[in-house]
Specification:
single chain; about 325 residues; mainly beta; 29 strands
């Protein structure tokens, strides 16, 4: 052929015509000259080349574990064959969203064929990202230190995410409630935490590749705060009728003993919520108005090995 936009190849006795960029669809004249013992044999053929289909793919990059959606883009109706992986192909118009399990580059292809057209193939590029793995850092006193254990002496605790530049957006949740602030670090008042319960701080965000990330840390608040009043009036008027320590937290191995001036036990209990009504050993009559002593012992709500027992002592005045 004299057309400069058509490349001619011979492979194992077969001739191939490869139209290149710039070739106009239509008739192509092919001249074949065969040299033999009897002279030259000249043949001429006219080949009609139809237009080549030009499919393309609309796709999305994704994060590991997400699905990739592939949508064909065609100018003409055609039969489609998808090559989603090197080992699999499927003939369908719209393939199901496909999970690429490992991070990296993938090259799904689409081949379109139809009567009157040359088959066209499009190779797409899809990138699968590995989500970032955030790490939360705790500063129990917001003083530049480290640690997620707080007690009643602290005013606040700061929690932040390591390498904040890796995240395009951040949201915080404290004890399952949304916590205002989209900064890389938040400051939580100790008054917003509950002793001896789970004080879970959770960060939800998106990294710079658009992958959703989530990480959580529990603030350990094992301290127990106990306050004991110094007087009460068991006169059934509805005000200060019982003696009961006010406790924040859930002490372990709790015990209370109350003694009169001679050292006799007038009340004892292992229930931190059981009050003393001012009577002797649970009987109906009341003790005389006087000053009594008490001793309270307990461990923190999550005691560790060899944890020191807390001991609180004091005096209580029974007033008629």
């Amino acid at each position: 052929t004299d057309d400069p936009n058509v490349e001619v190849l011979q492979i194992l006795g077969e001739w191939y015509l490869l139209p290149q960029d710039g070739f106009a669809d239509g008739e192509l004249t092919v001249n074949l000259t065969e040299y033999g013992f009897c002279g030259l044999d000249v043949d001429q053929e006219v080949i009609v080349l139809g237009p080549t289909l030009q499919p393309s793919i609309m796709s999305n990059d994704a994060c590991r574990g997400e699905l990739v959606t592939l949508i064909p883009v065609l100018e003409e109706d055609a039969e489609l064959v998808w090559q989603l992986t090197p080992d699999s192909s499927v003939a369908t118009d719209f393939p199901l969203p496909f999970p690429y399990s490992q991070p990296g580059l993938y090259f799904p292809s689409l081949t379109a064929s139809a009567n009157g057209y040359c088959t066209g193939t499009y190779v797409d590029t899809v990138e699968i990202f590995e989500p970032s793995r955030p790490l939360l850092l705790c500063d129990a006193d917001c003083d530049g230190g480290r640690g997620c254990e707080v007690n009643f002496d602290a005013v606040s605790v700061c929690v932040g995410v390591q390498n904040p530049q890796e995240y395009s957006s951040i949201e915080w949740y404290v004890r399952r409630q949304f916590f205002p602030g989209a900064e890389a670090e938040i400051e939580i008042a100790v008054d917003d935490l509950v002793p001896c319960e789970e004080n879970r701080v959770r960060m939800v965000g998106f990294d710079t590749n658009g992958c959703r990330v989530e990480v959580a840390e529990n603030i350990e608040f094992t301290d127990v705060l106990l306050y004991a009043p110094n007087a009460f009036t068991p006169n059934a008027d509805g005000y200060n009728d019982v003696f009961k320590p006010v406790i924040s937290g859930a002490p372990v191995d709790y015990s209370i003993h109350i003694f009169d001036r001679w050292g006799n036990t007038v009340f004892e209990s292992n229930d931190p919520y059981e009050p003393w009504h001012g009577n002797v050993e649970g009987r109906d009559f009341y003790n005389d108005p006087e000053i009594y002593s008490y001793i309270i012992k307990f461990l923190p709500c999550q005691p560790e090995e060899e944890e020191k027992e807390m001991v609180v002592t004091g005096m209580i005045t029974l007033i008629r």
